[in-house]
Design brief:
about 150 residues, mainly alpha, 8 helices, about 0% strand, globular
């Protein structure tokens, strides 16, 4: 239920009635909802599964990035990546290991990006690194949703 509330809040913030909107409704926030999959949403709403902490944090990082808030995206991603790696056992499956290994290797640059974000605006290189890491995190979470890995712990 917490995941649904977060998703609805993101949609509301991107609605045409919001002052914070900077582009038409539809972008990545809606795509993220579509990628959740009906099976995953049913499992969450039926209390057969709990959302992973990393799912919410990565979703927040994407929302910040899409809204042009690179600093906030870098900070959210740092925590989201750490959570994703801590919850790795619930994310294993066919095709996940190379991406999970890649993400483990990106811990350093993600931490550096977050540290840079605390000092001010991110460099173009850091913004690119944040976007690449965020894309890999999203790919891992999409695979989990697509394959319905609803158990583990």
């Amino acid at each position: 239920m917490k995941r649904l509330v977060l998703l609805l809040a993101i949609l509301e913030s991107r609605s045409p009635f919001s002052e914070s909107i900077d582009r038409p409704l539809g972008g990545s926030a809606l795509a993220a909802i579509a990628r959740l999959g009906l099976r995953s949403m049913a499992a969450l709403l039926g209390l057969r599964d709990t959302a992973l902490a990393c799912e919410e944090l990565v979703l927040r990082a994407r929302a910040d990035s899409d809204a042009g808030r690179g600093r906030e995206a870098a900070l959210q991603l740092r925590v989201g990546l750490e959570a994703l790696l801590a919850e790795r056992k619930r994310l294993t499956g066919h095709g996940q290991e190379p991406d999970l290994d890649e993400l483990a290797g990106r811990r350093g640059i993600t931490g550096e990006a977050a540290n840079e974000a605390l000092q001010g605006r991110l460099s173009a290189e850091r913004e690119r690194e944040v976007e690449e890491t965020l894309a890999i995190c999203e790919r891992v979470l999409r695979r989990r949703a697509a394959h319905g890995w609803e158990t583990g712990g």
